[in-house]
Design a protein that fits this description.
It contains 15 helices and twelve strands. It has helices at 10-16, 43-50, 65-77, 89-100, 115-123, 140-146, 169-179, 191-194, 229-242, 248-258, 261-280, 299-305, 320-330, 360-365, 382-394, and strands at 82-86, 106-110, 131-135, 151-157, 182-186, 204-208, 222-226, 285-289, 312-317, 335-336, 346-348, 373-376.
């Protein structure tokens, strides 16, 4: 095999990135190295591994061939120096916070952030003097106004969960650089297929691989991809010590799901674009937030920094909260469940579900209204999805 790195199309990279033929059985699928520890060839070999003088594996919390294959693949897809696979998406978030937020530090973040990502800062990290401002990060002037002497981290979601608000990543990177901040982007909603924040100037990208990257609603996990090796080593030290690392079987399942990421994202996005246009014209629908609609306030920004609008839709009904509850209780094909990014279409009510831990006033300030319904569009036939939503809307 040539050591020369070939430039390949994304569809090809998704299928082949991180794959190295098994030297023993030459299996097409990477093996699951289901082991907690690895044998040393000698005392000297073990000492050399611990000293970092030789490459190899010691203990699965510190590294494992199956996990490494996934990390290599995701670092390649996000154009990063290296990646760290984590046990859950929140393990990735918590590792980032623990690495970059020292005692009495301050962070700025997107108001409409994934609920637990916000709650852990406001309820746990405050015990160590960490303060935070959760704001509309689409307003760049507001970001600049909130920067303090002790601000260390600018942590954004774009598109945001669940409002679909877009933030200009390149502009945020310029602000972060000017003020010596670390810019972290949660890229879960877009996936590496549609957006690459590191190429736009971000320092670190995280994903809940539970979502689009795995894509089959059968495993949880996270990943942290760093722009530089120095950032990677800082994060790696914290992750290994805190113990939030992924296990080999998890990694193998995510690798299996990853290989169809491009196909799934393309199909789901096609469905979502059609559904968004249809919902926007429906007499019982009050509003639709979807970056692929020209009515979306950041439609031009989406075209600038994304390769497509994705498959997440937020919308509200003219009948408000009660109509929304009636809708999600009436669907037959769409599944009423939290999470997103699977091959199946999921529908949920963020105010009472994923963001229930966020105080009501703060939810409203973030645009998470009681009538907001979040739809994660899957890969079913568009006609079947439309028919299901149509019969449910008739009952509202």
């Amino acid at each position: 095999m040539s050591n020369k790195k070939e430039k390949r199309n994304l569809e090809t990279e998704i299928i082949h990135a991180g794959y190295h033929p098994d030297p023993v059985a030459h299996s097409v699928s990477p093996p699951i190295y289901q082991t907690s520890t690895f044998a040393f060839e000698s005392a000297e070999h073990g000492a050399a591994l611990f000293a970092g003088k030789e490459k190899g594996f010691i203990y699965t919390r510190l590294g494992n061939p199956t996990i490494q294959a996934l990390e290599e693949a995701l670092a390649t897809l996000e154009r990063g120096a290296a990646a760290l696979a984590t046990a859950t998406g929140m393990a990735a978030v918590s590792t980032v916070y623990m690495t970059f937020l020292e005692k009495n530090a301050h962070m700025i973040s997107t108001a409409a952030l994934y609920g637990p990502s916000r709650t852990i800062i406001e309820t746990e990290f405050t015990r160590y003097g960490v303060s935070s401002d959760f704001i509309d990060t689409s307003n760049l002037e507001e970001i600049k106004k909130r920067i303090k002497k002790n601000t260390r981290l600018l942590f954004i979601e774009s598109p945001a969960n669940p409002t679909m608000t877009m933030t200009d990543i390149q502009a945020c990177a310029e602000i972060a650089k000017q003020h010596g901040l670390i810019l972290v982007v949660d890229n879960t909603f877009a996936s590496p297929v549609l957006q690459n924040p590191l190429e736009l100037g971000a320092d670190v990208v995280i994903h809940s691989v539970t979502k689009f990257i795995n894509g089959h609603s059968d495993v949880v996990g996270g990943v942290i991809i760093s722009k530089t090796q120095d950032l990677h080593l800082r994060l790696q030290k914290v992750l290994r010590m805190m113990g939030g690392t992924m296990d080999p079987h998890q990694a193998w399942l995510v690798l299996r799901g990853l290989r169809t990421l491009y196909l799934r994202v393309e199909k789901a996005q096609d469905n979502a674009l059609k559904l968004a246009h249809w919902l926007a014209s429906h007499p019982k629908v009050a509003w639709v937030n979807y970056p692929g609609l020209e009515s979306h306030p950041q439609y031009e920004l989406m075209k600038k920094q994304m390769k497509g609008p994705g498959s997440m839709i937020s919308f509200g009904l003219k009948g408000g909260y009660e109509a929304g509850m009636k809708l999600i209780n009436s669907v037959k094909l769409c599944t009423l469940a939290v999470s997103l990014g699977g091959i199946e279409t999921l529908i949920q009510h963020p105010a009472s579900m994923t963001h229930s831990s966020v105080p009501k006033k703060e939810k409203e300030e973030a645009g998470i209204t009681d009538d907001l319904i979040r739809l994660s569009v899957g890969c079913e036939a568009y006609e079947d999805l439309k028919a299901d939503l149509e019969q449910a809307l008739e009952k509202c």
